[in-house]
TrEMBL record:
This is lytic cellulose monooxygenase (C4-dehydrogenating). Residues 1-20 form the signal peptide. It comes from the Eukaryota. One of its GO terms (cellular component) is extracellular region. Its cofactor is Cu(2+). GO terms for biological process: cellulose catabolic process. GO terms for molecular function: hydrolase activity; metal ion binding; monooxygenase activity.
Amino acid sequence: MVSSSVFGLLALALAQQACGHGYIWRVTADNTIYPGWDVALDPMLSPPPARIAFGGGIVGPIINISAAEMACNFGGSPRPSAIAEVRAGSNVTFHWSHWLYSHKGPITAWMAPYTGPVSAVNPNDLSFFKIAEDTVDAAGVWANVRMMDQTNRTWTATIPADIKSGTYIIRHEIVALHFSTGTVPGWEFTPVAAQFYMTCFNFRVTGGGDAEPSGVKFPGGYRADEKGMRFNVRNTTGGVVVPGEKYTPLGPAVYTSKYGVDLAEKPVTVVSPTGGGAEADKSYWDAQQAFLETQGKIVSYFDSMGG
Ligand SMILES: *[C@@H]1O[C@H](CO)[C@@H](O)[C@H](O)[C@H]1NC(C)=O
Ligand SMILES: *[C@@H]1O[C@H](CO)[C@@H](O)[C@H](O)[C@H]1NC(C)=O
Ligand SMILES: *[C@@H]1O[C@H](CO)[C@@H](O)[C@H](O)[C@H]1NC(C)=O
Ligand SMILES: *[C@@H]1O[C@H](CO)[C@@H](O)[C@H](O)[C@H]1NC(C)=O
Ligand SMILES: [Cu+2]
C-alpha cells in the first residue's frame, strides 16, 4: 500500500515535472521566429504540428548521466518535421516559459552535425560540440536567474561563423544544481544529484566555413566525478554565491569560431504555428500566452516552497 502522504508527494512531483519545469515555446533563429514545442498545446494537435523541436512534452529532469535520454530528452517524438534555416554567425534565441528560480545552474547550447533525414537520426550517435555556456557571474548570479529576469525570458547563442554548412541538431540545456549536494526538509524523496533538462532542435546552417569541431556523445559527455556535478547553490544570500566559490563547467570547453562575420540585415519573419491562417494562429498564440501565465503561477508556487 502506498500511503496517502506518499501519494500526495508523488502527485506533487508529477505536477511539478509537467508544469513547474520550463519548456521552450519559441525559437528566434537568424531573425525567423519558429514555434518551439508547446507542452500544453502541441501534443493535442492532429496531425502533429510541423516543428523544429524534438517533441515529447515534459522537460526532464534527467539525473542518470548514463541514460540514452541525456542526448535529446525523453521520447523525442514526434521528430522535427521542420528545419530552422540559419546563416553561420547568426544568433539563435531560445524563449523559455517560466523557469524555477530555485533550479540554479549552467545554461549551454551544443551542436552536432548529421546527414540524411532527421527521422533516421539516433541522437546517441551524434557528436556534440558546445557553442555557448553561461554559468554564474562575478556577482554570484546564476544563468537561469538572469535568463528569468530578462525581458521575455530568453537565452541567446551564436552559431559559430566558421563551421561547415549543413544539417545540425542543436541541444539546449539547463543543469539544475539545487539538489546536487543534498536535499532540504520536505524534499527527502528527491535524489541528491545534478538535474539535466534539455531540448533538441533541427537546423540547417548555410554560408559556413570548413571547421568540423570535435564533439562528445550523450551519454558520455559528462562524467560522474566532474567537479561541476556538485555545487551548493543554496549557500547563497539572495541568489549570490559565497564570494570566492568558483564553479567548474561540465564537459568540454566552448568551441569558438576562428573568425566573425558581418551579416546583412535580415527582416523578421514569423512561421505560422498552425499552418491554418491568421485566425488559427491568433487563437493558438492566445492559448499559448494563457498557459504560460498559468505555468508561471505554478512555478511561483514551487519556488515559494523551495523546490
Ligand atoms: C542509468 O542508465 C543506464 C543506461 O540505461 C542503466 O544501465 C542504469 O541502470 C541507470 N541507472 C539508474 C540508477 O537507473
Ligand atoms: C548576437 O547577439 C549578441 C548578443 O547576445 C549581439 O552582440 C550580436 O550583435 C548578435 N549578432 C547578430 C548577428 O545579430
Ligand atoms: C517581448 O514580447 C512581446 C510580445 O510578444 C513583444 O512585443 C516584445 O517586443 C518582446 N520584447 C523583447 C525585448 O523581446
Ligand atoms: C558557505 O560556504 C562556505 C565555503 O564552502 C562555508 O565556509 C560557509 O560556512 C557556508 N555558509 C553557509 C551558510 O552554509
Ligand atoms: Cu525540479
